[in-house]
Structure formats: C-alpha cells, structure tokens
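Hey, quick one: can you model this chain's 3D structure?
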Amino acid sequence: MKLPRRKFLHLAAAAAALAAVSRVAAAQGYPSRPVVGFAAGSTTDILARLIGQWLSERLGQQFVIENRPGAAGNIAAETVVKAPADGYTLLMVPPASAINATLYDKLSFNFLGDLAPVAGVVRVPNVLEVNPSLPVKTVPELIDYAKANPGSLSFASAGIGTASHLAGELFKVMTGAQLVHVAYRGDGPAMTDLIGGQVQVGFATMTASIQHIRAGRLRALAVTTATRSRALPDIPTVADFIPGYEASSWFGIAAPKDTPAAIVDGLNRETNAGLADPKIMERLADMGGMVLAGSPADFGKLIADETAKWARVIKAAGIKPQ
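Sure thing. Here's the predicted structure for all 322 residues.
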C-alpha cells in the first residue's frame, strides 16, 4: 500500500493520539523535524513505537508517536474520533477503551461506533501476584486466606478502570474474596508498594511484573489469560481454579470511522506482516505477549466482546471513576 507523501502518517500511542497535520501545514513543509512524545515506559507507548517503526520501514513514511495522556485514554480516543478519516491519525487502542465505554457516563463519542478497527497487535497476560511475606502460594490458598481474614488484604492497581483494577474486581466477583482496592497512578508506584508490603496482592501486566517475579521480589500465583504464558510456563492460569476467568490486557490499532477500506486493509496487512517478523515476535514474547494477528473484523469483535464483558463487571461492582 502506498500512502501519499503530503504529510507524515501518525500513529497515536495509547493513552494518546495525534492531531492530524493540516494541508496548509504540510504545504509549508511541517514538520521539519520529528515530533515525538513519551509515555514513561507505558506498555501502549512501547507497542506504538515498535509497530510504528515497522510500518515506517515498510511504507516509506515516518510514523510519529505522540502521547495524549488524560482521562484514562479518553482524550486520545476523542482526538482520533474527531480527526479526518484519511489514515493519517491512528490510535493504539488499550483495554481501557473497552472499559471506559461503561465506566464514564458522558463521553462525547461512542468508541464502538466512531472508530474503525484496523488490526489487533498483542494480548499481554496480567499476573495475580503477592508480596512474598503473604503466607499463600496458590490461588485457592489466597481465596481461603481472604475469606478467613475479610478486609485485611489490599490489592494494588494502576488506577481506577485500568486492566489491573478490573482483573481484581472480576476476581472478587467470581470468588467472593474481600480484597480492598488501592488505586495508584500507574504500574510503577503500584509495584513499589506491592514489593514494599504496603499492599499484599496485585494483578499487574506481565510487562510490569516479570522482572520482579524472576528476581523473587514478588510471588506469581497465576496468569490471567485463558492459557499459560510462555514467559512463565510453570505458572498456572487463574482459570485452572476459577473456571471462566480471563482478564488479559490487549492492544491494537484503530482509525476514525469512514477511513477508506483500502487504507484500513493495507495497514492491517502490513501490521500482520510485522507480527510475523521474527524480531517483533521476539520483542512481544519478551513482554509475555501473545500475537493478535487477524482481520479488522476480528479486532472489532474483540473490542465489542471486551466492552460487553467489562460492562457487566463494572455494574456488578458498582465502580465509578474518580
């Protein structure tokens, strides 16, 4: 697929997105240097840069990653929704996009209706993990301990409505275990307090957890995907003990609705080619990721299914944004 050279092709990173470059700016030669934003090591930003570099090389156009943090990713999504449907503004979609559809009552957009799915990228397990001082080594032991000591255990999350928060709430709904939620501003602070023992339980992403697990600073009880992770092959799944449990983080690419099908299909084809590239596969495997190659329709179904799933959990748990 050849994209016109009238401006840079922008790939927005997850809690963020790029504003489209106007024709006037393009005519004046803007931008004259790369425009890059940083997201302090977030999984979405890492993935956006990985896929953006691949697409830049394949398509001969620069993909610039810009982060628009705020409102749990809603600012980024709204930016893309309002952008011209010409393929120059894309969104790296995080799981929060499906969660926010129910969590927030008054969004100015409908995620399912106002964005066109382009391609899935990766599914990353969350890890049910505990501080090593907690005297539990299995999921059943954690459930029994929580029930025997109601309200004594806290679980950390990266914030209200994040994948790690909803993974914990789903665990509570399905087991009846009483865990007190403590919201942090990102995985980093949550990991610090979990390692320090200020909180006892976590459901963080594999990306945030794996080095701490390997170093013995945290004890992994289970991964939250339906199948085991190749990154931690000896760790069971939560579903091994709680049938039907699944709460992974997933990421993909979307564009404004009405983006021409030829552009969507071309980006899908090139993204899938990247996901089959050995170097990219190795990078994703290092994150504990499972490739989500497929059609735009496949990714659209995933978003719809996840939106419905988390709507049920949010309503059952009575979760409200802060």
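One thing worth noting: Residues 296-317 form the longest helix (22 residues).
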